Amino acid sequence: MIHDFDEYKGAAEMPYNPKDYGLPIWEDEDHAPSAKAEQEPKAAESMTAEAAKNKLCSYALSQVGYHEGANNWNKYAENPDLQRWYGWKPQNTYWCDTFGDECFVACFGLELASRMTYQPIGSGSALCRTSADYYKEHGAFFHTPEIGDEIFFYASGGINHVGIVVRVDGGSVHTVEGNSSDMVAERVYSVSDSKIAGYGRPDWAVVEGKDINVPTTDHIGDATGKVDEPRSYALRLPYLSQGSFGELVAAVQTLLILEGYPCGPDGADGDFGQNTEIAVRKFQEQLELTADGIVGPETGAALFDTEVYVPETKEEPKADSFWNNLLLKIRKT
Questions:
Q1: What is the pTM of this model?
Q2: Is the domain of 259 the same as that of 324?
Q3: 193 and 278 together in one domain
Q4: What percent of the chain has pLDDT over 90?
């Protein structure tokens, strides 16, 4: 898919930190590393910040020219560690953020990649603006580029595209971006380009001065081309309906839009309004599900293409719930 850069209306700032409320969205059923990863670790390397930046950029550049398959299929979403990081398999969707995150996993492993980019394991990310928000929350979002930064772009009214800075040359910034004209591509921009929202700076101190086990660059599949079986995960999803609000709603809206069900003029704004309910009903009707306009276990499983945790009793927002506390905090800001 080619991202739409026709309009730049500013970043979609979220006036809250979802982690403040401790909402358990994702449930990981297998926290153990794969047997292959345990049996065949690469020799440990002593890393410096400079070496880590060069490793990330070299890996990203090595992927230039890779082209997606049908319906946005891409090899990066097949990485089992990336699926563990998100808590779901981000296949057949926009994959620029998936590519960027997979570069960190490929170079430094899941645990370190999570700490470097401030994204907790099981965070359910794969959204560009969510990744940008993690950097912002930790004071690591800048307007001057450095090599190894993640570069975020305005598109379609918010932060909706991302790449990796591989070179800064005077007034130009060179990037490698996934899902750019359906492929991994190298791009060049003026540092004053209005579509650049800013730069997320990884925490290089996480790897600096340490010996780490670095995954092999060609980590997806073994020598025979066989891809490791993905681990099993269950999506823990509270019932979402009109009045729900937040990043999880935005994720649902994004998937609905990708399936061809528009959610209104504001798109994936995180606000479950009438247009989003209509989109949910149409999606449910198409799949012959109960068309009640509510995203519950069955609808969630269909949207996220994964198993969904089904509670014994219906989980609904209560007066002191995450959702209402969130709305109260937003109204006070």
A1: 0.57
A2: yes
A3: no
A4: 43
